[in-house]
Design goal:
disordered N terminus; alpha/beta; TIM Barrel; single chain
């Protein structure tokens, strides 16, 4: 399962809006202001834990592509079963932690392959969280730089048959060279020019991230806390379309 290059930006929005809300009602009110043509949606641990699988199905029924961001990391059989159940929700993409190892990633991929190639979600792996920098890596016992670890985990994910990885835009150019243009790169830590970095440490603007090789951009607070989120999304999409 592959996606095309930057030339199709106007046909497929590369923006994934992170629904980092504490409850479904607030998230639904926000989503009512959006259009599936302008963005995809990400449901993470907090909202999923509060609202459950049924909320994901509601978003899918509204026509949104949903990235289920639960970062599965467990023994292979458990992760494979979880991915299979998640696929039944109709999600567009889901993820696991690459540090779970080859066996875990291959089991997850095989579980999704049973759904059929046409209908199965994209399966990507988390490399190094964008909230982690060099000092954090050293503290938890990882040798090498963030880029070294992203390269190693990215290549491991590709060899295990995954569709792509989550990575910082700082590493996309390197991963594009190492893993090829069709390997999907999903980039969190996206901030608009002049906006607050928050708890992200390795960040980049939308245009620069796409230029560096990102396929999809995860954007949270710059959109969810905007007075007119729809206008923000239109502006970002227009900026990206001008890259053609």
């Amino acid at each position: 399962m592959t996606i095309s290059n930057v030339s199709s930006l106007d046909d497929d929005s590369r923006i994934i809006v992170a629904l980092d809300f504490p409850e479904a009602k607030i998230a639904e009110e926000f989503v009512s202001k959006l259009d599936p043509k302008l963005c995809k949606l990400k449901v993470g641990k907090e909202l999923f834990t509060r609202a459950g699988p049924s909320f994901v199905e509601v978003l899918v029924s509204k026509g949104f592509d949903v990235f289920l961001d639960l970062k599965f990391h467990d023994i292979p059989n458990t992760v494979a079963s979880a991915c299979s159940v998640a696929a039944d929700l109709g999600v567009w993409m889901m993820n696991v932690h690459a540090s779970g190892g080859r066996g875990m990633m291959e089991a997850a991929r095989e579980a999704l392959d049973k759904k059929g190639q046409d209908g199965r979600p994209l399966l990507i792996a988390v490399t190094i969280l964008t909230s982690i920098d060099q000092s954090d890596l050293s503290e938890i016992g990882f040798s090498g730089t963030p880029e070294d670890n992203v390269r190693r985990l990215g290549l491991l994910a590709k060899s295990a048959g995954l569709d792509g990885v989550v990575c910082s835009a700082m590493e996309t150019e390197m991963l594009r060279k190492e893993c090829g243009r069709e390997f999907v790169l999903v980039t969190p830590g996206i901030r608009l020019a002049g906006s607050d970095k928050g708890d992200q440490k390795r960040v980049m603007t939308p245009v620069n991230a796409i230029r560096a090789g990102s396929h999809y951009l995860v954007i949270g607070r710059p959109v969810t806390q905007a007075g007119d989120p729809r206008k923000i999304l239109i502006n970002i999409n227009n900026e990206l379309n001008r890259l053609i």
